[in-house]
Automatic annotation (TrEMBL):
InterPro entries: Cyanamide_hydratase_HD. PANTHER family: CYANAMIDE HYDRATASE DDI2-RELATED. This is Cyanamide hydratase.
Amino acid sequence: MSKTIEDNGWTAVSRSLEKLLSNRKNPESKATPLRVEDMPLPSSPVVDAIMKHARDRLPKQIFSHSMRVYYYGTFMHHRDITQCCALYEATATDIMTYTGQAIAMQHFPEWRYSPETYLLASLLHDIGTTDANMSSTQLSFEFQGGIQALNLLTQNGAPQSTAESVCETIIRHQDVGDTGNITTLTAVIHFATLLDNVGANPELVHKDTIESVVKTWPREGWTGCFAATVRKETKLKPWSHTTKIEDFAEKVEANETMHPYD
């Protein structure tokens, strides 16, 4: 498999998160407490342009959610730099060049992807939920968002493989289920969005890490905000992909993991 394919998360894994968790190489792996300030964000002309676009266009609550999704997904897969080097038979410089930080896979050590691509997907995954975007199309918000992200990334010079990976991830970021496959990038965003939105699998991220993330990127009533978004999407578009998740708004409102931080 080429480095470009790996960098952009184009590796097939099970769509079933339960299967992914049960088939881990180390099912007993424990989350390590980490702090946001210890994990600098990737930076590149494309990332910087998309970061500005997201800050300018997304409501504050959606932008903060997007950043939490990035950090939760990243922290789920953080490993000490020396362990990374041993795992991939690389120098510390090689690992930092590949990932931008000391990131491998704490829970899924065989997965590899670029945090830059994951940051782009995190920043844009809910772009279709803004009032302007939701009302501008009959498409489900993930599909509209994926198409918009593909065009935006291409216009800002992202490689085709990167732009298409982000598009695929956004389109399928609510495509949870038990059959078939998804990409590693989509799997990571599934774990991260489900943690932030419904409190699923909280053991994958240390409680101290969650507190560091919400301190930096506060929820500010995200539970109610997102539940309202789900209801708005399904009311405006009763055919929407969001209806695939039964009682989704109620599941969001029952998020006990994040309740203390709302």
